[in-house]
Specification:
The complex is a heterodimer of chains A (328) and B (168).
Chain A lengths: L4 E4 L3 H9 L4 E4 L5 H7 L6 E4 L8 E3 L3 E5 L4 H6 L1 H6 L1 H9 L3 H4 L4 H5 L51 H7 L3 E6 L2 E6 H4 L18 E8 L7 E6 L10 E10 L2 E10 L6 E2 L1 H7 L6 H12 L10 H20 L2
Parallel strand pairs in A: 1-3, 2-3
Antiparallel strand pairs in A: 4-5, 5-8, 6-7, 6-8, 9-10, 10-11, 11-12
Chain B lengths: L1 E8 L2 E8 L4 H8 L18 E4 L2 E4 L12 E3 L1 H4 L7 H8 L9 H16 L18 H7 L10 H13 L1
Parallel strand pairs in B: 1-5
Antiparallel strand pairs in B: 1-2, 3-4, 3-5
Helix pairs in contact in B: 3-6
Classes of the chains: A alpha+beta (328), B alpha+beta (168).
């Protein structure tokens, strides 16, 4: 690790000022991703501003839904009674991620802002455009089992590894950001970037921007929601493919639906095309398959992950079918 | 960059000066000679370094010691009371839940933390009903302890030890 100074922030404004005023500074939440990357030589901040003890650790009911503080630990969020009852897809996504020890430390904002990555990004001996812009992409032509099939570029095919974020994107979550210029909100789906020709940037945040909360709008039909994760081992493993879905049925028809995919792109992937295909149509396996296929028309698999196209389609169908059966 | 912090480790107050780059694991092992947490992968993947930090199980290799100033740390060594093994440690002995023993202190701390989570009603990925009570069956135990690897493969007996502990 390169040497760094450490500052425990007393309030969010102080934290923002401390990071904004120093190009090499970084926020420290639970550190489960950042400290690992510092050890690997992937990250080398010269100042860590610890925001994990800021008073942002509450889950509150608001007039519009639920407000989740940025420092709420993943395990506490998954166990929160309102999350389990109203947003089971979020509780399920959280519980499917990492291990018990990591969930006890990882924060809500830290989970969102863990790096979009691939094994080459974490191996400093290999070229990687995300780590060293312009150095090349080792994955293209290399190992691509865990890589993107949607929205990738010739410069980067890495995937965002969060489960929680996939559920939150499906739920139309909004992030509250405090920056040097004040507070603002933006839809979580717009926080993340596709790699394009600047894969070094995972999100649209500027240096010094601090996520202080995530807001989940009311979505009564999310009580019938699910998260399905397909992975290489049964637990403590990243998704090859994952599906977050909420389904609102009107008899045998789809009144409304929320669908997002994980493990397939540089960002959690809102399956807007599939949703459009599903709304107002029959809640049948055929319709679910057609919707998934509509979303996957844009898929451009790599030699090592062509299986993900069929796997994504099947996972979408299985998730929606289970939700439809639950509703009968 | 040096920092001065104070930890409470296994019931003892331990002031220590260290480089900010020091992890909690290295602070315990190399600065405070508390060697029951083990360094396995050093990247949060194996669980050998698991300790209880303010009562919650964590991997000490991914936490900076400087961020723990004022915290209470309990290691496997500190679980024993008045020379008597903790009930989870006793269950590991009775069920022969280890072979080489390297992962055991982490397994034990993880299990103690896990049992507290179950007591608090926290669901896991293996829980069928998110809002119902948790029954700690074998599938639950395996899921909840997936952050602890045992390269000797003593899993069968670890599960047996915790099944016994869950029933008592």
């Amino acid at each position: 690790m390169t040497p760094f100074e450490y500052l425990r922030a007393e309030d969010p404004a102080e934290a923002v000022a401390a990071v904004a005023g120093r190009p090499g500074a970084a926020f420290l939440g639970g550190g489960t991703n950042l400290v690992d990357h510092m050890k690997l030589g992937v990250a080398g901040p010269d100042l860590l501003v610890d925001v994990s003890r800021l008073p942002l650790d509450r889950v509150e009911e608001t007039a519009d839904g639920l407000r989740i503080g940025a420092a709420v630990r993943n395990s506490d969020l998954a166990a929160h009674p309102l999350v389990r009852e109203r947003y089971p897809v979020l509780a399920r996504a959280l519980l499917s991620g990492a291990s018990g020890q990591l969930r006890n430390v990882a924060t809500t904002a830290g989970n969102l802002l863990q790096r979009t990555r691939c094994p080459y990004f974490q191996d400093v001996t290999t070229p990687c455009n995300k780590r060293v812009p312009g150095s090349g992409c080792s994955a293209i032509g290399g190992y691509t089992r865990y890589h993107a099939i949607l929205g990738a570029s010739e410069h980067c095919v890495a995937t965002h590894p969060s489960d929680m974020a996939v559920a939150m994107v499906a739920l139309d979550a909004v992030v509250v950001v405090l920056g040097p210029g004040g507070a603002r909100t933006l839809p979580l789906a717009e926080l993340y970037r596709l790699p394009g020709d600047a894969p070094e940037r995972d999100t649209v945040l500027e240096h010094g921007d601090l996520i202080t909360a995530v807001e989940l709008p009311h979505l009564p039909f999310a009580r019938r929601s699910a998260y399905r994760k397909v992975r290489d081992r049964a637990s403590f493993s990243f998704a090859l493919v994952s599906v977050a879905a909420a389904l609102d049925l009107d008899g045998g028809r789809v009144r409304d639906v929320r669908l997002a995919l994980g493990g397939v792109a540089h960002r959690p992937w809102r399956a807007a095309r599939a949703e459009e295909e599903l709304r107002g149509g029959p809640a049948t396996e055929d319709a679910f398959r057609r919707a998934a296929e509509a979303e996957l028309i844009a898929a451009r698999p790599l030699p090592g992950n062509a299986f993900k196209v069929a796997m994504t389609r099947n996972a979408v169908v299985a998730t929606l079918r289970a939700l439809a059966e639950e509703g009968r | 960059m040096d920092a001065r912090i104070t930890l409470r480790v296994d019931g003892r107050v331990r002031p220590v000066a260290l480089d900010t780059r020091t992890t909690l694991l290295d602070a315990l092992r190399d600065h405070l000679s508390v060697t029951s947490p083990k360094k396995g992968c050093d990247h949060g993947q194996c669980g050998a370094c698991t300790v209880l930090l303010d009562g919650r199980r964590v991997v000490s290799c991914l936490i900076l010691a400087v961020a723990c100033d004022g915290a209470e740390v309990t290691t496997a060594q500190g679980l024993a009371e008045e020379g008597e093994p903790h009930p989870v440690q006793r269950a590991f002995l009775e069920e022969d839940a280890f072979q080489c023993g390297f992962c055991t202190p982490g397994q034990v701390c993880s299990a103690v933390g896990m049992l507290e989570e179950v007591k608090a009603g926290h669901p896991s990925d293996a829980t069928d009903d998110l809002t119902g009570p948790v029954t700690l069956d074998d599938e639950e135990i395996r899921e909840r302890l997936s952050g602890n690897l045992c390269r000797c493969g003593a899993y069968v007996n670890i599960v047996a030890a915790l099944r016994e502990e869950a029933e008592s």
